[in-house]
UniProtKB/TrEMBL annotation:
It comes from Fagus sylvatica (Beechnut). PANTHER family: BNAC02G40300D PROTEIN (PTHR47074), POLYNUCLEOTIDYL TRANSFERASE, RIBONUCLEASE H-LIKE SUPERFAMILY PROTEIN (PTHR47074:SF48). Residues 10-95 form the RNase H type-1 domain. InterPro entries: RNase_H-like_dom_plant (IPR044730), RNase_H-like_EbsB-rel (IPR052929), RNaseH-like_sf (IPR012337), RNaseH_domain (IPR002156), RNaseH_sf (IPR036397). This is RNase H type-1 domain-containing protein. It holds the Pfam family RVT_3. One of its GO terms (molecular function) is RNA-DNA hybrid ribonuclease activity.
Length: 123
């Protein structure tokens, strides 16, 4: 798992787009080839799965994310409701207290472990 603080975020959408790009980079760093990326921002998911260039402030970020994802053998971007994304939100809260720029978690933090059973894709 990866938890990272984003300094000086532009907008909620831009922050979500940056998180998606970091997730793809993380998958590449780990050498993964078949990956499902989940996010609860419908706007960002639509930008990542659509054919059109997003004109918003996050457009360049989502285009970069799609280009990186094409380096994977197989990938899909899925939209999940916030209820189905509880682990990501717990990690985001944890990242607020991160002092290290990139905090790679080798083990699931005890205060997040119980959320794994609840973290299901909800369409």
């Amino acid at each position: 798992m990866l938890s990272q603080k984003i300094r000086f975020p532009l907008s909620v959408e831009a922050t979500e787009a940056m998180a998606a790009r970091r997730a793809v980079r993380f998958a590449l760093e780990l050498g993964l080839t078949d990956v499902e990326f989940e996010g609860d921002s419908r706007i960002i998911n639509d930008a990542l799965t659509g054919e059109k260039y997003a004109q918003a402030d996050f457009g360049v970020i989502t285009e970069d994310t799609k280009a990186l994802a094409r380096l994977l053998h197989n990938y899909v971007f899925l939209h999940v409701k916030r209820l189905g994304n509880s682990v990501a939100h717990a990690l985001a809260r944890k990242a607020q207290n991160c002092t290290i720029p990139n905090d790679r978690l080798e083990h699931v933090p005890p205060n997040i472990e119980h959320l794994l059973s609840l973290d299901i894709s909800v369409e």
